[in-house]
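User: Predict the structure for this protein chain, please.
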Amino acid sequence: MGHDVVMCPAQHVYLDMAHSGDPDDWGAAWAAFVDLGEVLNWSPVPAGAEDIAPRVVGVQGTFWAEFTTEDRQMEALIAPRILGVAQKAWESGDPGTGTMTGPELRALSRSYGPVFDAMGWDWYRGA
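Assistant: Here is the predicted structure, written as structure tokens:
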């Protein structure tokens, strides 16, 4: 229809989803699991829809908080996946060509651990 869009596919950037299938892992496990690497494993311009590329104006990580009752629950779901969302938003070049791999994002998340700690965040350390 010609509208500008911000892409936020649930299976990759819905940050309220659990990180893993571990029953102790907080998050909306009923819908999906979003491993840290999955935050990078997509293209804002879907394959076969290259004609919409000029209309894709950004990406977004989404957090639905209807089951979140404490900040620490939110913090552990957002951090460190927010680093992957930011990386996906900053990527440039041909659609589908990422500049960071899952292992590189895991290393980056470990290096940001002291930052999250300094903020007092209860970040997800299983990445």
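The chain has one domain: 5-119.
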